Amino acid sequence: MTKGEAITKVLHRGYDELGYLEKSKKAYKADPLVVYDKTKGAGTDNITKYWQDIKKAFQGQPWCQVFVYYLFFAVFGKTRAAKVLYLDSWDSFEPWDYFATMSWRKNFENHDARVQTSKAQVGDIVFFKKSHVGIVYRIEPDYIYTIEGNTSAAAGVVRNGGCVRTKRYKRKKGGVDEVDFYGRPNWSAVINGKSTR
Hints:
Elements: H1 3-17, H2 25-30, H3 49-54, H4 64-84, H5 98-110, E1 114-115, E2 125-128, E3 132-139, E4 143-151, E5 163-170, E6 179-183
């Protein structure tokens, strides 16, 4: 597999998730499998298939970061996805909050995989200043386009918005105001290797 093929597979998985809505506790309690339906059982309780498949005990926690994890997990399996995303262990999650995102950011920094806006590429993980993440699927001279989980259709960075959708951010001299930095995944962990899924 080439780097381009790996990125394409992850992004296509992201496109498949567009329109997914988080579920209500009531719907989940009535039928836990409701998490696998894109729109049925919608609510505002942070119940998702991403938590169901990655760390079920964290249902109800914010899910922008686990959404990105899920894309890589679904394409490469847990072992390779952990390597691509600079995770020490797939099971080393802490309760999901601001500090978990900060910890993941540190992993990119510790592996010299922090990238500024001028060097951003398709497939990079975007870390927003408001403790929110997404993945870059397109770059133009004036805009950065992302796929994000737990956002909304409102302009700008929206944390805990409840759905998967694409977003667009205006690029300005010196970068994008709302973006802290981009993290470059370790694509070499899957280049010339076979996906485990």
